[in-house]
Amino acid sequence: MTWSRKILLPLVGLYLSVVAVSAQNKASLFHESAAHKQERMQWWTDARFGMFIHWGLYSLGARHEWLKHNEHMTNEEYQKYFEIFNPDQWDPKKWAAEAKAAGMKYAVLTTKHHDGFCLFDSKYTDYKATNTPAHRDLVREYVNAFRAQGLKVGFYYSLLDWHHPDYTMDDVHPLTQVDTSRANYDRLNKGRDMAKYRQYLRDQITELLTNYGKIDVLWLDWTWGKDDKRGKHADDWGAVELIKMIRKLQPGIIVNNRLGLDEEYSDGGDFVTPEQVSSKELEGYKGKTWETCQTFSGSWGYYRDETSWKTHRQLLDLLITSVANGGNLILNVGPTARGEFDYRATHALDSLAYWIHANSRSIYDCTYAPASFTPPAGTKLTYNPSTRRLYVHLYDFTPRTTLTLPGYAGRVKYAELLNDESEIQLTTAGNDVVLTLPKVRPPYDIPVIELLLK
Ligand code: GLC
Known about the structure:
Helix content is 33%, strand content 17%. With 454 residues, the protein is an alpha/beta fold. A 7-stranded parallel beta sheet has the order 5-4-3-2-1-7-6. Strands 8-9-15-11-12 form a 5-stranded antiparallel beta sheet. The protein has a 3-stranded antiparallel beta sheet with strand order 10-14-13, with no helix packed on it. 40% of the residues are buried. It folds into 2 domains: 358 residues, TIM Barrel, CATH 3.20.20.80; 75 residues, Immunoglobulin-like (Sandwich).
C-alpha cells in the first residue's frame, strides 16, 4: 500500500462513520455551539430552584385548573368567573418576597392557561384581566415585582385554548368530552380555522416577548405524542416558525421542550420537563438538561378541598434529588382568587426558607458528585465543581453515631456541618473516612455535611 492509500483509506472510513452518525442524529434549527448554549443557560443551571405560579379564572372554581374540561363547561358556563375575578388581596411584591425567601431564583407565571384567559393586556382578545373587575395587566405587575427582587422572570403560555373560536377540537377540549364521535368533532369544528389560531399564538407570544422587557424563560404547554390521533402536533402550532420567532425576539431566552419538536430536532427546546415524577425516577435524567415541575398538592391551580399535600421532607427530597442528578426543581403555587398564597403553601414555603437559609450552599451552583464518590447509605450527595466541595445530605441522622465515607481516605481536607460551620471530626480507617456526628440533632429535617476536598 502506498503512503497515500494508507492515509486516505482510514480517512474515508472516518468520513463514512461520521456521515452515518450524523444521519442518525436529529436535525438542528439553530446550530448553536455547545459552549454557547452552556453560557446562555448558566444562570438557570446555577439557580436549580424556581417557583411556578398557576393563577387564573380557575382559581375561583378552586377545584383544579382543568375544571372547564372536567365538568365539560361551555364558554358561557365558565363566564361567571370572568365577571367577578377581582384579586383584592393581591400584592405581587409579597409573592416575590416569599419566593426569594424560600430560595427560589426564578419564577414562571401562567400568562394564559388552557382556559384561554389572559392575565396580560393583549390587543388580540377581550378575554383578559383588564376586562374583568381586576382592571389591570397582572403580568406587568408580576414582572416588575419579581425583577425588583432580583429574580429571573418566566412566562408560561398554554398552546391549548379552550375559549378561542378558531381553536379546533381534540380529545381534551371541554366540548368533546360527552360525545367523542367524529361527527361531533366535525359539527363543532364548523367555522373554526386553526390557521387563524396559529396567527393568534404568534401575535400573543410576540406581545409577551416585546412588551415586558427581557424575559428569561418561556414555558410553552403542551403537545400530544406523535401517535395521538386526536391531539395536536408541532405543525398545528406552526412550531418551527414559532421557535424561530421566539429566539429572534429574545435571543437569550430559555425555552422548554413542549412545542413537540423533540423527535425531529436536537434544539427544539432547551430542557426536558418531567412532570410530577418521583424522586426515584429523577435518577434516570442524569446527563440531560432538565427541570422537574411539581405541585405542593395534586393540582396546579388553587384547589381548596385537596388534601394530598406533600410533606416538608418530601419537598426537600425533591430539591436535593434534583440537584443530586444535575437538574432543576420548579415548585408550583396556586394562589387563591383573592391573590394570596394559601396558608398551606405559605407554611411549606416558610419551612423551605428555614432550611435553605442554612443549607443553600449544597444547592446553588451544584450538580451530581463525581462517580468516584459513593454516597454512604442513607445519604444523597451534591457537588460544587468550582469550590470542590461535596455535600452529604443526612436522610437518616442518628445523633452520637459515626458515618463512614467509603473509599474517601486521602481525599477529604476538612468536614463541617453546613448550617453552622461547626467542625465535624474525622479519622481515617483503611480506605474510609469516619465522621463523628454531632451529639445533638441539628434542627433541620435533612442536615448537611460539607466536605472540603483535597
Ligand atoms: C400539564 C397540565 C397543566 C399544567 C402543566 C404544568 O400539562 O395540562 O394543567 O399547567 O402540566 O406542567
